């Protein structure tokens, strides 16, 4: 069994495997612009974040009913369990669905049905994080938060994703303030393709508790020092960084330097159906390509539970303690 871990940066729509996409397309009468799964997979050669996002949003056309979202999440949780995931904090992109006429309730209740059974069926505790699309307006983000109000019992936090450059965090100051007032936790993608300054801005203006990616913090030593001092978790996604060309090859990924600097790094899969691996595969890949040794892998697993939103109650804290004990006791083969 792989080492126990939490996955904290995972877009549920990015777990849509080609086989499921075609099955849902047939069920829903959706015509896809690919002959078959093989032709679709061949399209997974991305130039950058935007070229990926174009395909990612396009393929969502097959997701229409609560049952579709339930199936999507259940399929992810089954795969994640086989890779050692014990806790998953799952992003979803409601604006991408609402724009297609699929309502917030369909998405949240469908995902929720799978999540409700996750602990029993897959041994994974779960949280949902609702993301705002940063290339859409601040008004649209606020309307999305409003639409989520009947479902807040299912939503732990808010995030910020989609095309980063030109859409600085401060654009979403008002909606993050409103989300905070509703008791929601806060994260944001920053420093994936955008500059290190977006990482600082997400902390200072949005008040986020974790940074998704944060790769480009390495360009600003003062920022690195701050992230270390404040123990701000970074949810890194090395396989994504290679596929979206943030780094040329995995062997050049800054993860070892980031860990050596004392940053609180976690490993995640981002959009595993598109990027060639789930989170267990990611642990394996950084061991092979970057020489992260077993104690380094244990640190990454421990960090994932430390950074998880498992502090809402005594039951949450007990769960975190249990997971940390599993990590400490884990024996590498
Ligand atoms: N890696 C990523 N960056 C920004 N937005 C995303 N949406 C899905 N995956 C994403
Ligand atoms: Zn992401």
TrEMBL record:
Q: Which reaction does it catalyse?
A: adenine + H2O + H(+) = hypoxanthine + NH4(+)
Report which superkingdom the organism of origin falls in: Bacteria
Query: Where is the site labelled Important for catalytic activity?
Result: 213
Q: Name one GO cellular component term.
A: cytosol
Q: Which residues bind substrate?
A: 271
Biological processes annotated in GO: adenine catabolic process; hypoxanthine salvage; nucleotide metabolic process
Give the Gene Ontology MF terms in alphabetical order.
adenine deaminase activity; zinc ion binding
Which InterPro entries does the record cross-reference, listed alphabetically? Answer: A_deaminase_dom, ADE, Ado/ade_deaminase, Metal_Hydrolase
Alphabetized, the UniProt keywords read: Hydrolase, Metal-binding, Nucleotide metabolism, Zinc
Q: How is the cofactor bound?
A: Binds 1 zinc ion per subunit.
**Which residues of the sequence carry a binding annotation for Zn(2+)?**
9, 11, 189, 270
Q: Where is the active site?
A: 192
**Adenosine deaminase domain: residues covered:** 4-314
Q: Which cofactor does it need?
A: Zn(2+)
EC number(s) stated in the UniProt entry for this protein: 3.5.4.2
NCBIfam families registered for this protein in UniProt: aden_deam, PRK09358.1-6
Protein family per UniProt: Belongs to the metallo-dependent hydrolases superfamily. Adenosine and AMP deaminases family. Adenine deaminase type 2 subfamily.
Protein's job: Catalyzes the hydrolytic deamination of adenine to hypoxanthine. Plays an important role in the purine salvage pathway and in nitrogen catabolism.
Instruction: State what protein this is by name.
Output: Adenine deaminase
Source organism of this protein record: Streptomyces aurantiacus JA 4570
For this protein's source organism, the top of the classification is: Bacteria, Bacillati, Actinomycetota, Actinomycetes, Kitasatosporales
